[in-house]
Specification:
5-stranded mixed beta sheet, alpha+beta, 205 residues, two-stranded antiparallel sheet, globular
């Protein structure tokens, strides 16, 4: 995570886009060009914050529990928000498995690179993926974001005071949490120093 949000301490906002999530917005060209998930080309960080806060309005009943107490989900129907939010999950079949690629990826220069697999953009473009019906905003508490920043050597005090930071946005067709990828669960278990959250693996899950 990064130590400061785009809100710059705007107390009127309950939720801000954390800089860790800037890679999902094309206005941040360098970060978004290498990101293989959903990238929003038709809505800015500031506009997304306005949309999310207008929907949320401090109503905690709209938050859905995530994989840990500091993590929440906010599901918003993708009506008039973003046409560039395409469903970003493909079923692996005998017909397309040969197209899968693997590489070691780190989400920032402080993280330990881990092995991931993905379909290249050329494959997704040919399939004309549909626009997602919902956006899953994954929120981390301000306290958790600060803990992860400190663990990676970022001890600067942040001017941001919004209680929640958006750390990821998933484009999908359901208003429910999708399963966490195994490599993300593994990274979290490695601890905050390696870019994870510090939540241990649960073998039963």
């Amino acid at each position: 995570m990064s130590s400061s949000g785009s809100g710059g301490g705007d107390n009127k906002k309950h939720i801000v886009v954390d800089p860790f999530c800037f890679r999902q917005f094309s206005e941040h060209k360098e970060a978004s060009q290498s990101y293989k998930g959903t990238v929003f080309g038709d809505v800015s960080v500031s506009e997304m914050e306005d949309i999310v806060n207008s929907f949320y309005q401090g109503d905690e009943s709209k938050l859905v529990n995530g994989y840990a107490p500091f993590c929440k989900h906010l599901f918003i129907e993708n009506k008039g928000i973003s046409e560039s939010a395409k469903v970003n999950v493909l079923e692996i079949t005998p017909d397309n498995e040969h197209l899968l690629r693997t590489e070691y990826q780190a989400r920032n220069d402080k993280e330990l690179p881990v092995l991931v697999r993905y379909f290249p953009e050329s494959v997704k473009e040919k399939l004309e993926l549909p626009t997602a019906k919902y956006l899953d905003f994954i929120l981390y508490s301000r306290e958790q974001i600060q803990k992860e920043n400190a663990a990676q050597g970022d001890d600067e005090d942040s001017a941001e005071t919004a209680p929640w930071g958006i750390v990821s946005i998933k484009a999908q067709d359901t208003a429910t949490e999708n399963p966490m990828t195994p490599i993300t669960a593994m990274r979290n278990a490695l601890g905050k120093e390696e870019g994870g959250s510090g939540v241990p693996l649960n073998r039963e899950e």
